[in-house]
Structure formats: structure tokens, C-alpha cells
Amino acid sequence: MAEARSGHRRSQAADLPGIQPVSLTRVSDEVAEQIRRLIVSEQLAEGARLPAERDLAERFGVSRPMVSQALRMLSLMGLVEIRRGSGAYVLRRPQAMVTASVGLLVDLHGSIDDLAELRLWLETLGVVHAAQQRPPARATRDIRDALQRLAGSTGSASAWIAADTVFHATAVRSAGNTYLTAMYEGVHTAVLAYEYEHWVRTETEPVWLSPSGAPVLLDLHQAIYDAVAAGDAGAARLAVERHHDVMLEHLAIAQGQPRAPSRRGGE
Questions:
Q1: Class for domain 27-90, per CATH?
Q2: Which of 5-19, 89-103, 109-123, 216-230: highest mean pLDDT?
Q3: Fold match between domain 27-90 and domain 99-254
């Protein structure tokens, strides 16, 4: 009987020497998430102005810089537009995203290069499919409107970053698959969290958003819109890849690394 019982004894637990303490969520992350949820629960319309940073800081019980960081994080998601001297406004209603789980994967594995490549694959899938099926006129208008918003955002880092996310999400959404859009937005936001990490913390505008660089960046986005509107899948793929190469350059600058070479030769 004792032998039978011994056969059911638990095996020795694995040591797992690689376990490390889990860091607590940053205050600004939690504030951003609460504001995101409040935009939904309070049914705030696009264009609604959020309370002033000072008021939000008092109500959340945090410092004003933490609120500023949270609002800039929401700009990365294309949810809030920060207008200097006026306040923060709802740019669009949040949709289901997988940002938190994507961020956890990056924290565990630390491969921003793989994450950026995944972003490329997802955007290519959406934009190329949209071009192939010639999206409805309404979807094409939405991309054009997003492009016009982007063009009107030059000169303001916060406005540009938010409008940029809206443009890419709108382009991918034109493929007509809500799950693809949700996955793309989560990955895109996680990549931007690296690209604009210094801006979120300090509000220091990145060098690539200088006024002199605006025409080049706009041309990259114009090419994506033109390809989808024309139903040219080949041009759509090329336009997304060119944008990706420029994003890699920005990530390299943000991380203090040498300029990342293009993997597509002369593109």
C-alpha cells in the first residue's frame, strides 16, 4: 500500500532559475488605461475635450507629469490629440487592441526587430488585400480623410503621431477584417512605444519630425493611399515596405544605433 502511495507522490518541481521579479505597471500606463476606458464608458464623442491635466492629476491622485505622459501614450494609439495651449481632445473611440499582451511579449523577449517585422507583415496583408479587392468608396474616403488630417498635423509632434496611427489603422481597416485591424493596432502601438519612448517621457520632439522632413514623410503615406485607391496591389506592397524601411531608421535613431540598412536594396 505504501508503495502504491509512493507512486502518486509529486515529482520534484523544476527550479526555473531564470525567474526575475515582475516590475509594477508604470503609473502613466495605468492612467492612460483608465482614461481609455473612461472614453468608452462615458461615451465621449470624437472631438470632446478631456479635463485639464491639472484636474486629471488631482482626480487620479498622481503628478501632472504622469498625466502628460499618459496623454502622449494615448496619442501613440491615435485616441487623443494634444493641442498646445488648448488641451487634449478625443480623436477617435478606442477599439479592441492587444497592446498589453504585445508589450508583455516584448518585455520578455526584447526583440523590437521581430515586432517591427510583424507590424510590416500585418500592414502589408491588410493594405495589399484592400488594394486587390478595391475597397468601397467610403473606405477609400476614410483613408483620404486620414491622409488630409496627417498633412494638417505637420509642425506638431503630438498631432502628427496621433494622426499617423489613425492613417495606418484606417488603411488596414479598409481590408474589412476587424480582427486583423485589432492585431495590427496592438503591434503598431507597441512599436511606436519604442520609437517615441523619449518623446513620451520628456516631450522632446524627435529629429525626424522636423518641418524639413514633413514632405518626405507625407510622400510615404500618400503612396499608400494612392496604391489602395488605384487598386494596385504591387504598388501597395512597395509603399508599405518603403514606409517600413524609414521606420527602421527612426527606431535606430531612437535607440542610439547606426542607421539601419534597407533589406530591399535600392528602395
A1: mainly alpha
A2: 216-230
A3: no
